[in-house]
Amino acid sequence: HSTTMASTTLIRTQVSPILSLCVYRCVCLAVSPSLSLAVYPSHHSQTQALARMSTRQFENAGHSSLYAKFRPVPPPSLLDHILAFRQPSCPPPPLNLAVDVGCGSGQFTRLLPPHCTSVLATDVSQAQVDQARKQLKHPNVEVMVGGGEKMEVDDSSVDLVTVCQALHWMDVDKFYQEVERVLVPGGTLAVIGYHFTRPAPTMAQCASLTEAMMKVYTTTGPFWSNRRALVDSAYTTIPMAKFSRVERSDTEHFTEMEATLDDWAGYLKSWSGVQAFTREKGEDAAEEMMEEFMMTCAELMGGKVNESAGIRLQLRTQYWVILYQK
User: Fold this and answer.
1) What pLDDT is recorded for position 1?
2) Among 7-11, 32-36, 67-71, 102-106, which stretch is predicted with the lowest mean pLDDT?
3) Which residues contact 255 (CB under 8 A, 6 or more apart)?
4) How far apart are CA 229 and CA 227, in angstroms?
5) What is the pLDDT of residues 214-268, one digit of tens each?
6) Peptide bond into 88 cis (omega under 30)
7) 81: left (phi over 0), alpha (psi -120 to 50) or beta
8) Which residues face 119 on adjacent strands?
9) What distance in Å separates the CA atoms of residue 135 and residue 19, rounded to the nearest whole number?
10) pLDDT above 70 for 202
11) pTM, to two decimals
12) Which of 207, 214, 260, 286 is the most exposed, having the fewest neighbouring CB atoms within 10 Å of its CB?
């Protein structure tokens, strides 16, 4: 297949209902991307090689619980974008079957049921599947243990395959081959990712607060999977699928949420690098690192660390999306 790229210029604004731990305001505007800093850059060929292997994460129930509580919920505008990409060559919703691969605790999956007759959500981690089953109560959603390299569905039976913040854990060549097998003609693959959740640029202390977050990233750097570099590059170093039509957007979609300093610290604790640091260095070292982070942030916000539950921030998570049509 030939591969073509198209840029997206639509501007959308959307407001979602109250979600999860606080009020999420889901908007989608043409803005400058808010990219994660690649603290540990890898050579392009090395990252491409990494993407051709699969691995497992989030097997621990406690880690999965943190993930479910503090990870951001994607904006509905992402799904609007995906559905618009499918038009006019595909029938309008509802889609017959969508498969959300690497579903985690169901953050992206929850957007799919209103637009699909059936949704299959899979993750290699039983702990994540257990969390997703708690979160996803829709009658047309099935959650099961499984990987993206082998989907338990028939050939040419799936209208939409989605993968949100999980492609970097997979063997992408095998995943793309499996997507080719399961998608109907004209079907869609949506690859989604997001950068670190950080203070919104409208906050007065945005740069200094982000610096405090990046210090935690630097401290825990040796304990992250080397696949983190694939996320820091916004998947630009992962080989692309070879489908007939391709579109990418890096700047349209983000969520903003009003949160407390405790909430933001909880999100950092859900990082796989922080979890690995805690296992290797011990609870005391991890607690000391997080206390320093919270003290720095509290001082920047004009508060005290023992008042962290009352210190309010505006947090933003920037998403990218790569869309393919078979």
Assistant:
1) 37
2) 7-11
3) 24, 25, 26, 27, 72, 73, 74, 75, 316, 317, 319
4) 5
5) 999 999 999 999 999 999 999 999 999 999 999 999 999 999 999 999 999 999 9
6) yes
7) alpha
8) 98, 141
9) 12
10) yes
11) 0.80
12) 207
Question: At residue 283, what is the residue type?
Answer: E
Per-residue model confidence (pLDDT) at position 88: 82
Handedness of CA 166, 26, 274, 49 (dihedral sign): positive
CA nearest to 269, candidates 93, 85, 68, 97: 68
Residues 140, 271: Cα–Cα separation, whole Å: 31
279 Cβ neighbours under 8 A, 6+ residues apart:
none
Name 74's Cβ contacts closer than 8 Å, sequence gap at least 6.
107, 108, 111, 164, 192, 194, 253, 255, 319
CB 319 within 8 A of CB 193: yes
pLDDT at 14 over 50: no
